[in-house]
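Quick log. Single chain, no ligands specified.
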Amino acid sequence: MQEQWSQRADAAEGAVNARHVRRLWGLPGTALGVVAWPPVRRERLFGRWHYWWQAHLLDCAVDAATRAPTAKRRRKLSKIARAHRIRNITGWTNNYYDDMAWLGLALERAQRLHAVDNRTAIHTIELELFDAWAPEKGGGIPWRKGDDFYNTPANGPASILLARTGRLWRAQAMADWMDAYLRDPATGLILDGIRTGGVLDRAVFSYCQGVVLGVETELAVRLDAPRHRARVHALVAAVETHLCRDLVILGGGGGDGGLFDGVLARNLAVVATTLPGESDEDEQARSLAASIVLASAEAAWENRLEVEDHPLFGAAWNKEARLPGTGHPIAAFTGGTVRSSAIPERDLSVQLGGWMLMEAAHVVSAAGFR
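-> predicted structure:
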């Protein structure tokens, strides 16, 4: 089983590299993801590039280098990070705290697991996130600079990064804030965010569940505070009840949404393989998290297309993938969000989500789950 998932993760990596990854503006020592396939001229020239999608490209490349270490894969990590900094023009940061948190997580993993020196970038991002904490205004940290919307997509990955860089007290405060203000008592799921004044955005997204599982598991590993394990137990069960059918994660979509389910799968794999504790509840949470990852990965693999000997993953893992073409509208950034291409399988985000899922399945199968 482990070998099978390794082969499938390898195929997903190969598909993204073949279809999407190119030098940035022809510069040596760079690699970045073209955001659409088939691309048009603007995408080939990286006129559109979508900062947080590229952060997940780096994170998936870290997964591949961890699964099967090679010098080529390690070099790819440096190339993606370098291209990201160059294409961002102004350095490592932008105005969106969620974007920066995702990049910080990917850079930190590349450094910790593969000795790719990203110290300056990680420190720069860490300070941005740490200084954005604003409990006097209702947060949390805001979604973006100057905004009054305090949301899970910013606080979740930021708190994971701050936990990993040693600021555990702040990470714990952020986790406690999300549990107090953004957990829906009716379903146990985590809502999108809250505005100054207490107005909730009650939208439910799969990646919000993923990042909260991630930080609560991180804190459960690092701190002797039982509430973090208890929250993981409850949230894994809520995900299975409300966001899955026959253990397969439902939803998906294109644009930014193409990454949402992959983020959830990645963090379910973290729960399965690192949640501490020997109680029945701990065992059940780990087992259920692994089962969701493996069932989702099997569904996504069965519903893929094979195009030029590479898999093309569907935007919804329980439905057959559709073949994109050049004659339909392409994903575009509007209102702070990247909207889907007309056929979402065209989006790099969707294919990264599939790759992320295959890597997550490999991780849990390597840990002995079936």
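The chain is about 55% helix and 10% strand.
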